[in-house]
Amino acid sequence: MPQKLSTIISPEGSLEVLSQQEVNRLRDTSANGLHDLLRRCSLAVLNCGTPTDDSRALMQTHHDFEIEVLQQDRGIRLKLDNAPHSAFVDGQMIRGIREHLSAVLRDIVYVHNEIQHYPKFDLKRGDGITNAVFHILRNAGTLKSSREPSLVVCWGGHSITREEYDYSKDVGYHLGLRDLDICTGCGPGAMKGPMKGANVAHAKQRRHDGRYLGISEPGIIAAESPNPIVNELVIMPDIEKRLEAFVRVGHGIVIFPGGVGTAEEILYLLGILLHPDNADIPFPIVFTGPRDSADYFKRIDEFLAFTLGERARERYRIIIDDPAEVGRAMRRGVDDVGTFRRTHSDAFYFNWRLNVATGFQLPFEPTHESMAQLALHREQPVHELAANLRRAFSGIVAGNVKEEGIRAIEQHGPFRLHAEPDMMARLDDLLTSFVAQGRMKLPGSEYVPCYTLG
């Protein structure tokens, strides 16, 4: 039986005052309320440090956890019942966890009130979606107008080997030594390692304003608790806005070994950069891992060349077992981004010039019907094929770790994907290699595929 603790805390940041209507909506347990979303995301934040990627199992373990927003004369407070004991030290909540809890509340309230139910944001149009992403980031205080380009996005798997994790720390260390900051999905594994490495490097360089930005969305954060090093946390309403936030605020991307979630992110990124409007925009990308991960990137590289063509290969560089060279390559690439944006009078803090096609912005709901209808063939523009492949991998991620996806698989069986024969064979080889390498679930749990091909 896990240890639990009940307490009342004051949130940090800009949440001193909420309206009675906002408080009531956060308490409301109906379909129109926000209480269940707040409860699931808050529990994941409080569960920080416990390795799990099953949001439903977490909710079952802490079925008696409750959070209530109390409105008082001096502002709101949060009443927590049966919260995980690991979030506290001597009865006091760890400050970083309290900041993350406040960020969750801040973004849930802001997105619901100012984005999803406000007519100035047309979330069916590309420019409206980009505008919404900008406003969510600005409201969170993430856009730093006075900072030189320095933010390196790090993607990779949460289910990685110890060697891969240590390597990601080494890469983060060499990025940090070169005055580069880190942005990740804020979970464990390859998202935690670079932040730890950069944190040590920043301390050695006496860099006291290092940024460790985590961008997540409710379904992911409910499954993967944010790592404690994150000092800026932003919750996007869905995975598409989360991915757009990464490419808008980041100045370069390092990709570590992962599974279907990492493949989804790679396809998203390359699909955008392969759009003709983005051909001349510099955006450094490095795939990297220790020597034992070379085969992983070889398979990814072959799959990308087969599906997206040689032009895709020109947009990234593969560096194996050389953290220092990754740091040097990314420093040079970020400097090129800075030069380009100065030349074109672009903002450093948000990449407005990048054309993100609507197919990469509209939310994809992975149902059995929508997964079966995906167009997985090469008789379409390459950036559209990348968008459909990304949706396929997004559905597999949902079936692996998201509560609604797990429930759908249990009720209706695995998702079925259809593709042209050659692509089907390549897709099958890639997914089979992920399973064989243990990249679908955290170690210790047997993987049962949530998809079939045919």
Walk me through the structure.
The protein is of the alpha/beta class and about 450 residues long. It has two domains: about 5-115, 2-Layer Sandwich (MCP/YpsA-like), CATH 3.30.1850.10; about 145-454, Rossmann fold (3-Layer(aba) Sandwich). The chain has helices at about 20-25, 35-45, 55-60, 95-115, 125-140, 160-175, 195-205, 220-225, 240-250, 260-275, 295-310, 310-315, 325-345, 370, 380-400, 405-410, 420-435; strands spanning about 5-10, 65-70, 75-85, 90, 90-95, 150-155, 180-185, 210-215, 230-235, 250-255, 285-290, 315-320, 415, 450-454. It has a seven-stranded parallel sheet with strand order 9-8-7-6-10-11-12, with helices on both faces. Strands 1-3-2 form a three-stranded antiparallel sheet. Strand 13 (about 415), helix 17 and strand 14 form a beta-alpha-beta unit. Helix 6 crosses helix 13 (about 325-345). It is globular, with a radius of gyration of 21 Å. The termini are far apart. The model has no long low-confidence stretch (mean pLDDT about 90).
Helices and strands in order:
Layout: E1 4-9, H1 20-27, H2 35-46, H3 55-61, E2 66-72, E3 75-84, E4 88-89, E5 92-93, H4 95-116, H5 126-139, E6 151-155, H6 162-177, E7 181-184, H7 193-204, E8 212-216, H8 218-223, E9 232-235, H9 239-249, E10 252-255, H10 260-273, E11 285-289, H11 294-308, H12 310-313, E12 317-320, H13 323-343, H14 368-372, H15 382-401, H16 403-412, E13 415-417, H17 421-436, E14 451-453
Helix pairs in contact: 2-4, 4-5, 5-9, 6-7, 6-13, 10-15, 11-17, 15-16
